[in-house]
Design brief:
The chain is α/β, with parallel strands linked by helices and about 525 residues long. Helix content is about 35%, strand content about 20%. It has 19 helices and 21 strands. Strands 1, 2, 3, 4, 5, 18, 19, 20 and 21 form a 9-stranded mixed sheet that branches. Strands 9-10-11-12-13-17 form a 6-stranded parallel sheet, sandwiched between helices. It has a 3-stranded parallel sheet with strand order 6-7-8, with helices on one face. β12, α9 and β13 form a beta-alpha-beta unit. α8 packs parallel to α9 and α17 packs antiparallel against α18.
Length: about 525
């Protein structure tokens, strides 16, 4: 198939000023980019782009599509926001390597998908038929689950660390873009420094990315940043700080110092950068409100402890004290008022979906702590929350930093989600470019070539002759994010066409359900 985009205002992804041009696509490749009066291809389908912006497809540096892409291969919620590439396996959470027959995990973040019938990255990627391009990181959790005998919520032995390194080596050789950990989450939080340094030596050997959801984004954010920067100094590994933010109203003043620490590392010659999703409120597992000592327990043990708090006041008081005076971990219950913590979706108790913890406590005639313990003790599946954690000022400060690139942190856990999962890209453009008058070219660079460059993708992220035809056509005059927490999957306005490898995934605002995406690998 060949397509001629005629009379477009081209924003090419480089950050340079827009220019008028025709863009000719044949097969999966951009063949010509030229001034409108000089480029004509009579055999091509023609798309009139008058008054429209033509730009590279948006690239999502921070995704959790690992199971969504096998559940829903056409990836409509990414296509409908113009995303043509995403990188999954973030926060130390992923789906390979895996032992066939083991029970699936991570439903709170990834949702459900039957039996996992793959063993490693290669057999997983062979299973994928996808509507967008995708890449993957090797997750720390799966390495620990594979290598550590029994409950992985403990320090690993030397033999287990060696096995993890061997598994990581295999994944990187098979094409993973790097290694991710989530030091905020079990089982990654139980890794000691020796284990992390050993794994990072493998990452450094292959010159891949180390992506990290670091240990504390709240009260201890400065020491937590220092922890991961010290790992970079010891290993020289390339660092990607996941969804950079400070959480809690009192911690917003720390953002300038966080950025200063990162830029100091850059001045010392280390490759350090970060991604960000464009919302003041976040979303993660409701279980993450609990102290690490509880999260160490197997699910049935945790449920029993939480049920016991209803009759054992001493146990209840000790857990509450730990949540309100945390040491070495982020307690969102201490950082956010209960009215700012809301249920997005609960599998076992859907009657609480959309309610905040104050409302739930009132409905149950309990205090918020009792209510939290009560609903989590009953939960057998996923429990996803949202929490207001940032200020508009700090969000904008991180966005404006030249090291920032775009990520959605999209979660597809169940029938409800944070709006970023279906509208993060358009939300960023609408908030920054339409409402706040940032230039489209500066914002689109962070969403395209900045991500491609970070991952070493040399033929994507720009509108250039010879580059792959991942393209977005939008109308800046009608562009609008129509979503909110009550309508998370509402389709945006103004996005007209999305092309993935030269095939329309969205045509005149309608999904085509194409499967033209591919699994990209690092080489």
């Amino acid at each position: 198939m060949s397509v001629l985009f005629r009379n477009a205002t081209v924003i090419d992804g480089s950050g340079e000023r827009p220019f008028p041009a025709n863009v000719y696509v044949r097969g999966d490749t951009i063949i010509k980019v030229g001034q409108s009066e000089s480029l004509s291809e009579p055999d091509a389908q023609t798309v009139d782009c008058t008054g429209r912006i033509l730009c590279p497809g948006f690239m999502d540096m921070h995704a959790h599509s690992d199971l969504e892409i096998v559940r829903n291969p056409t990836m409509p919620f990414k296509v409908r926001q113009g995303i043509t590439f995403d990188l999954s396996g973030n926060c130390g959470i992923g789906v390979f390597p895996w032992h066939e027959g083991d029970e699936p995990r991570f439903a709170d973040i990834l949702g459900h998908y039957g039996k996992w019938d793959w063993t490693d990255f290669e057999t997983y990627s062979e299973k994928l038929r996808t509507g967008i391009n995708c890449g993957f990181l090797q997750s720390h959790s799966c390495l620990r689950i594979n290598a550590i005998k029994g409950n992985p919520n403990r320090a690993a032995t030397a033999e287990e660390i060696e096995k993890m390194c061997s598994l990581l080596e295999t994944s990187l050789e098979q094409g993973c873009f790097g290694f991710s950990t989530g030091l905020y989450y079990a089982p990654c939080m139980y890794a000691d420094k020796k284990e992390i340094l050993a794994l990072l030596s493998v990452v450094k050997k292959h010159n891949r990315i180390f992506a990290v959801h670091h240990r504390c984004e709240g009260d201890d954010i400065l020491s937590s940043i220092d922890e991961i920067l010290s790992l970079v100094r010891e290993t020289g590994v390339r660092l990607e700080i996941s969804h950079l933010k400070a959480i809690g109203r009192k911690n917003q003043v720390k953002v300038p110092e966080v950025l200063e620490k990162i830029h100091q590392m850059r001045e010392e010659g280390f490759d350090v950068a970060f991604d960000q999703y464009p919302y003041e409120y976040g979303s993660t597992s409701l279980f993450s409100l609990l102290p690490p000592d509880l999260l160490r327990l197997a699910p049935e043990e945790l449920s029993a402890v939480l049920k016991k708090t209803e009759s054992d006041k001493e146990l209840y008081d000790s857990i509450v004290r730990e949540m309100m005076d945390p040491h070495g971990w982020d307690s969102i219950a201490e950082l956010c008022p209960w009215e700012d913590i809301s249920i997005v979706t609960m599998e076992s108790s859907p009657e609480f979906n959309g309610m905040n913890m104050v409302q739930i406590a009132e409905k149950l005639s309990m205090d918020p702590f009792n209510a939290l313990f009560h609903i989590l003790a009953k939960e057998k599946g996923y429990a996803l929350m949202s929490d207001i954690t940032q200020s508009a000022q700090s969000l904008r400060m991180i966005f404006e930093d030249p090291l920032m690139c775009f990520g959605t942190d999209a979660l597809y856990t169940g029938p409800f989600a944070h709006p970023r999962s279906a509208n993060g890209a358009i939300h960023l453009l609408y908030e920054r470019c339409v409402k706040e008058n940032y230039s489209f070219e500066s914002v689109i660079r962070k969403m395209t070539s900045a991500v491609a460059s970070r991952l070493g993708l040399k033929d994507r992220g720009l509108i250039r002759e010879g580059y792959k035809a991942d393209l977005v056509l939008l109308d800046p005059a009608s562009l609008k994010d129509n979503s909110d927490m009550a309508h998370q999957f509402e389709m945006c306005s103004g996005l007209e066409n999305v092309m993935v490898n030269g095939t329309f995934a969205l045509r005149n605002g309608e999904l085509t359900h194409s499967l033209s995406g591919i699994v990209l690998v690092s080489i």
